[in-house]
Amino acid sequence: MLQPGLMMDRPLMISGILEHSAAQFGDVEIVSRETHGPLFRYTYADCAGRARQLANALAALGLKQGSAVGSIAWNNHRHLEAYYAVSGSGMVMHTCNPRLHPQQLIYIINHAADEVMLFDSTFAPLIKGIAAHCPQVKHWLCLSDAVNLPAIDGVKTIAYEDLIAPHSSQFEWPEFDERTGAALCYTSGTTGNPKGALYSHRAIVLNALTGCLPGVLDISPQQTILPVVPMFHINAWCIPYAAPIGGAKLVLPGPRLDGASLYELIEAEKVTLSAGVPTIWQALMGHIEQNGLKFSTMKYTAVGGSAMPAALIAKFSDVYGVQVRHGWGMTETTAVATMTSMTSAELALPAADQHALVAKQGKTVFGIQIKVVDEHGQTLPRDGTSQGELMVRGQWIIQSYFKGEKSPLIDGWFPTGDIATIDAKGLMQIRDRTKDVIKTGGEWISSIDLENAAVGHPSVAMAAVIGIKHPKWDERPLLFIVRKPGQALEKEEILTFLATRVAKWWVPDDVVFLESLPVGGTGKVQKNDLRKDYGGVFS
């Protein structure tokens, strides 16, 4: 007979994170770049008080436990307060991607049954277009003061500061089952309607605790962290929860995510750690190189969302002294599932070998298991070469979609749609998305590997590859290039460059030069847009 443990059974609650930070790190600073005006500064203790005010205000509006509150907002202090006030009250915080097509946005707001919508004033034109189609939203709450409250025809708006001002900063957070839904995020998929992942308090707290580990994000009171990844995209990788757990200074960048604005904020606030997608870091690096700048405090950056080219990893590390930590996760995994963190032996390797390791997506963090399977569902060996669909399971992986009729799981594992390899040491590498891998003559070409090789050329700012139908080979790769400013790179030069770095049959059949690539709300290149415009047939 099993012997029961004799420990207290206390629920893992998001409100507990807030109160922990207020009690233990109450004077640690939160800095927020406002949509209007200068930087806003306050502390974790201040944040907790205002979150309690918001919790009281939402209750006064008649919201109950289980109600959904939506947001269309940037990374700022009012959005952070809502993260805690909504979930801590037993409601569901539904973060909406403002760059979804308006029809998709209308769909997810109605599907989630949002009763209140929080929005930043920059999105007033968007609100004007969708409000009439969202009848369940009773209150449109602008994250501003009365001075900056926009007038929107046909929409009655309330200023956030006016709403919370009359309410007490004392609030008794309720306790309930830690498996209760806390936050809702919809996939940014381009086929069909977005699907909702409803994260529990337990899943978010466990993931945030994991993010604090030295081998993951190493969040502690010695760090100042800048999450560039949006709070509307899988909870900004749970950094708004992990930072207060670890006691790190938190810097929120607001709407200005260009290279110059980010660099200014990093230097002014002495940021040591940041996190975002590769397109953000490419833009930041472009600004730094063009202006002869360097980092004075930045120690490392976490990257995810898509693969970061080894050439960019090398530049951050070798030229600017910033260590890159490469991770993988998705909407369905709450946030981080794998992360690169090198051992002492690996840190003794030559720089090029280290960069090659970091260019992969890392090993699973504790609580997560992965495997790759073939088209018949058979598990493939961990040999670093056998590639198949990546499957994942763990403490913060979804088991079903919100209001979904059928579970997506296969024998208890979630099929990610990524093609990957895993080596004998557990190091995983995403080779491609199942929809993006290029099948030519019965063999697979990784669009990711081709893109990373192309970005290695000194004249290339960004690259993307799609498969184009071919009458003989089924598909062949088409390369898209965005040149760095002032560069005169031409087709033959880049193809010759690639011929020395990839297999001959991988070399693209053609190159298209663009001023920019279509990028979605989460910073990923929208390859469906490229297919729509260029997806003909090679002759």
Task: Provide a descriptive summary of the structure in words.
With 539 residues, the chain is α/β, with parallel strands linked by helices. It is built from 17 helices and 25 strands. The protein has a nine-stranded mixed sheet with strand order 2-1-11-10-12-13-14-15-16, sandwiched between helices. It has a seven-stranded mixed sheet with strand order 7-6-5-3-4-8-9, with helices on both faces. α1 crosses α3 (77-88) and α12 (310-319) crosses α14 (351-358). The model has no long low-confidence stretch (mean pLDDT 93).
How many distinct beta strands? 25
* Beta-strand residue percentage: 15-25%
Uncertain residue ranges: none
Average predicted confidence as pLDDT:
93
For the record, the CATH architecture of the largest domain stands as 3-Layer(aba) Sandwich
| Distance linking N and C termini | 71 Å
Name the overall outline: globular
Instruction: Give the helix tally.
Output: 17
Q: Report the biggest beta sheet as strand number plus sense, adding barrel if it closes.
A: 9 strands, mixed
Strand order of the largest sheet: 2-1-11-10-12-13-14-15-16
Derived structural class: alpha/beta
